[in-house]
Amino acid sequence: MTCLLCQRSLTTKLTLTWLLSWQPVARPVVCIACWQQFQPIALATACPQCGRAQPQRQVCRDCQRWDPQPAFHNVALFTYNDAMQAYFQHYKFQGDYRLRAVFQPVLQQRLTQLTADRVVVIPVTATTMGTRGFNQVTGWLGTGINDGILTVTKTVAQSQKDRQARLATRQPFGLVPGVELAGQRIVLVDDVYTTGRTMRHAAQLILENGANSVTGLTLAR
Predict the structure, then answer these.
(1) DSSP three-state, residue 200
(2) Which residues contact 174 (CB under 8 A, 6 or more apart)?
(3) Do residues 45 and 56 make contact, with C-beta atoms less than 8 angstroms apart?
(4) Strand ranges for 172-212 from DSSP E
(5) How far apart are CA 153 and CA 216, in angstroms?
(6) How confident is the model at residue 56 (pLDDT cuts 50, 70, 90)?
(7) Contact 139, 97 (CB under 8 A)
(8) Phi-psi category of residue 198: left, alpha or beta, with phi > 0 → left and psi -120 to 50 → alpha
(9) N or C: which end of the chain has fewer CB within 10 A?
């Protein structure tokens, strides 16, 4: 078996404890060298509103510019560094669906640690589904399809906009008819928190429809 990122051979060390446990082998999909290029964000010092990595826990300058939204905050798992950018280039933009396995375990594990009545995923447009063939977020969570409660209108991709254009984006999301959110605690999952415009648009819509709180979860910030 080879590393999904660098194609070097992977080896699995079998310990006596494992042999006596009769448990299945947990086979890695990336090598240690590749994995160590990703930079986890320390929750203890991250911005309490957006999850940005920083030396001490305080509201970052980006979040100070937003109007207060006390029922929403975001948790991010990794810094968007060069290694993460390269990962997204291959997984999201070049459509290598195999790469969903790189972050499936860590994202799913973090999801189980958050309190939620419902998990909501940011959808991709029908055009993106037609060209790429999958939703990168639901790829991590299991299905790879748009199967949630949010709908999205066709817009210019956020990755093609500068900061000002991102911030000026109008509300692109809607709710599937008949969805009941009153009093619910929602976990909202997306791939990257950049300016926060996408997550905050979705969170605003969910809160306006009766949800009690929205916790964002993104792989990167």
Answers:
(1) helix
(2) 150, 151, 152, 153, 205
(3) yes
(4) 173-175, 185-192
(5) 21
(6) very high
(7) yes
(8) alpha
(9) N
Look at phi and psi of residue 142 and say left if phi exceeds 0, alpha if psi is from -120 to 50, else beta: left
Query: 106-162: per-residue pLDDT in tens?
Result: 999 999 999 999 999 999 999 999 999 999 999 999 888 888 899 998 766 666 667
**Residue in 17, 33, 35 with CA at minimum distance from that of residue 25:** 17
Record the tokens describing residue 188, joined without a space. Answer: 């909202």
What does the chain come to in residues? 221
Neighbours of 136 (CB within 10 A): 24
Q: Assess contact for 217 and 112: CB atoms under 8 A.
A: no
% helix, strand, coil for the chain, step of 5: 35, 15, 50
Quote the CA–CA distance of 101 and 135 in Å, as a whole number.
Answer: 14
Amino acid residing at 194: T
Q: 218: number of CA atoms within 13 Å, CB side?
A: 27
Coil vs helix vs strand at 132: helix
- Which candidate, 45, 181, 186, 218, places its Cα nearest to that of 115? 186
Q: Which tokens in the block code for residue 95?
A: 């459509």
For residue 1, what pLDDT band results from cuts at 50, 70 and 90? confident
Query: E-strand spans in 38-184?
Result: 72-78, 118-121, 150-152, 173-175
